[in-house]
Amino acid sequence: MSALVDPRPPLLNRQRERAVLDDLLADLRAGRGRALMLRGEAGVGKSALLRHILGAAAGMRVVRAAGVESEMELAYAGLHLLVAPLLDGLEGLPGPQRDALGVAFGLRQGDPPDRFMVGLAVLTLLAEAAEERALLCVVDDTQWLDRSSAQVLAFVARRLLAEPVGIVFAAREPGREFQGLAELEVRGLAGPDAHTLLRSVIRFPLDDRIKERILAETNGNPLALLELPRGLSPTQLAGGFGLVEAQAVPQRVEQGFRHRLAALPAETQSLMLVAAAEPTLDAVLIWRAAGLLGIPASAAKDAQADGLLEAGAGVRFRHPLVRSAVYSAASPPQRRAAHRALAEATDRDRDPDRRAWHLAAAAPGPDDEVAAELERSAERAQARGGMAAAAAFLRRAAELTADPGPRSERALAAAQANVMAGSFEAAADLLAMAAAGPLDELQRARVDLVHGQIAFVSSMSSDAPPILARVAKQLEPLDPGLARETYLEAWYAALYAGQFAGGDDLHAISRAARSAPRPAGAPRPSDLLLDGLAVLTTEGRAAAAPLLRRLAAVFAGDEVSLAERRRWSPVAVAATSTLWDEDAWYAIQAREVRYCREAGLLALLVTWVNSMAVYEIWHGDFAAAASLVAEAEAIAAATGSRRSPNGAVMLAAFRGREDESVPLIERVIANARAAGQGVGEQFPHWVAAVLYNGLGRYDEALVMAEVAQVVPEMHISTWALPELIEAAGRTGQTRRAKEALDRLAAATDVGDSDWGQGLYARCRALLSEGEEAERCYREAVERLGRTRFPTELARAHLLYGEWLRREGRRADARTHLRTAYDSFTAIGMQAFAGRAHNELLATGETVRKRAADTPDQLTPQESQIARMARTGLSNSEIGAQLFLSPRTVEYHLGKVFAKLAITSRHQLTQALPDQGHDRP
């Protein structure tokens, strides 16, 4: 007879951990939302802490779920389990959110929802459920959540603030989606508590040396202390414990569960295997499958008596390691039989995807019929926005396909799905599977195309252009339309690679694209784009201008389909800025920001918000730009995006804050150089040139501008030319300044754009004398005054004023210098304002430095919410755009009102400075 007892693992001490959990509950009761991640190895006590917080949540509404390892590829499975009790509130959600969540859960038909719109829907659903009483959500085994659920729940967790919603996660090792959440590491029990727990399960005297060995090997892990000695006699404990020291504690605990399982009757083991194979632990489904296998209801008694399984209205394993032990201990034929029974027990119409998954697990070898079922499941998963699930279904379909030809095609489709899901290693493995089969020429080209897409999407490095250019050439006789699209992808990849592109640079790709055959029919928007950019690169702006103007009109209008816009609008923006067409540039960006917000496409939105921030900085609205930068940073944190923070870099440099901008500039340059991103290196060099020109450190500005204009055809290098001309002119390097002026003349001579022509007139004035210089300065002031760029206009006034002072015309100089100083100060361009201040002093005028008129006391997010409220948007509408709950918007507005000393939205118009019309 064993001298061991079987208590539930007690919550010994844990004062530190319990205090953190109790503080979270206190915040919920006070109306504040919070999220917390419990992290620690299996068996260390996370479940006991979850039981503590569940027991302490008196008066709160509680929902709970747990990740299941076998369900990791079923999109939104874990999320559905958590929020299912709250779905009676689904119809009360705003339309786009209701539809997104309904499609994600398979409750309605529709286009694939973006996972972040699903996240906003869940945030709103939880906030609404917490209106009457606080809501606590508990998610155990987070490491086994399906990827879609993990991303949505992490997104929601980061946005809890003013709603009484708490989410407590528990994981052995959290996925990257949860990085940045508040964490509580759960460690093994300390010495006295570990001794106490060990004494509670071993009731006979134990040699101190053996006791210390047990405590050392378990490292205070409570489950190990409870389970490892189970069933062992005093003699065994004294002489044989610790013979498997190379194993980690959870593995040894699982092995202990296996030994206990082996002692149970065969029918009990079979029942537990069926339960372990069913991800949702649906009791009805488990008993139905058990019946198909001839397992009697009495089979559960022994498992319950041993404490391994609870089986009643619901089914629950004592610990996830029990489930793992049950499944791994079974033979492959036994597992297949369990899955086959579960497939037969699953309703074909209500849950076809789970049935297909069980059928796949039950297949002993290739099975074309099951593979076809999995393909259909992949289509449904993709329609719900579960791209990771679609990729998993397609991969399993490929593995179950006997014929090498269809197997390769399915593997190729799975690889493409994995690229879209961001699983690049899995995609590469599947490409190897596809390449092992008999591929025709088009399929081989598609394999190479996915390789190129992986290289570009994963890191935007210089590896991508040569791959994509070669694939485009291969595709020319096979699929001319796809070939041209691939040339456009190669062109964009080469633009990013810049000087790192090597032989496959913009010129080589453009020449190849121009000689490629054209598909029959009217040109698509992508064809217009490729034609315009290829001619621009090979023949220059004058030849390309008509084509560029046409594509700018097309992409700024309504002629482009949604799919083409999502794919090609970033390239079109580069083309419109080449034309100095500020209207088309703004129109495309504003539309895409608005669309991505409405559709919840955060992966795309982070790109467009950064782009719009660049526009707003030039527009002189630094408060709006700061709001956009804050939004981009929040989106990047939520999505794991590695996009370069162009908005943040440019804002710091234009503000002239050297201590803030230089470290950021250096970091972005280093990252871009390491990744082989030429454009990523150009951009920070350009804004550094602006910074140093503002500070009057022209030697440094010249160095930075020289690096930034290494590729003279495109937008960033062209933007750097005025900085180079000013810096070279101020340092007496007239020849370099004139060469740059000639390039700027060619760059701006594509139309009568006030933006381009105004910059050229300003730069030409710097290198002119007498009446010619004054005429150019006046033209620059007049033209730039008609643009939306007060930053550039103020710089024209500054340069004009500096020239007038040097000409001895102090009174005239003061007029322009005062205008420049006032503009720079109002905008927040501190370095240029300092330069204008010093020039005014040199004219003999006394000037008192003053701060900008912008409400710096507002945080970027508060400023953004205030500006949106000023336009008349409701809290719900603002929340939908910024992915916040309406209550959180209300919370931020309350702080805005207090800081601005106002009491209503109507007063925002007067309280906020207005740099121009409000934008998305």
TrEMBL record:
Record flagged with keyword DNA-binding: yes
SUPFAM superfamilies (UniProt xref):
C-terminal effector domain of the bipartite response regulators, P-loop containing nucleoside triphosphate hydrolases, TPR-like
Gene Ontology terms, MF aspect: adenylate cyclase activity; ATP binding; DNA binding
Domain HTH luxR-type residues, every copy: 851-916
A Gene Ontology biological process term: regulation of DNA-templated transcription
* A Pfam family that the UniProt record links to this protein: GerE
Q: Which UniProt keywords apply?
A: ATP-binding, DNA-binding, Nucleotide-binding
At the top level of its lineage, which domain of life is listed?
A: Bacteria
The record's annotation in InterPro entries points to: AAA_16, P-loop_NTPase, Sig_transdc_resp-reg_C-effctor, TPR-like_helical_dom_sf, Tscrpt_reg_LuxR_C, WH-like_DNA-bd_sf
- The name this protein carries in UniProt is DNA-binding CsgD family transcriptional regulator
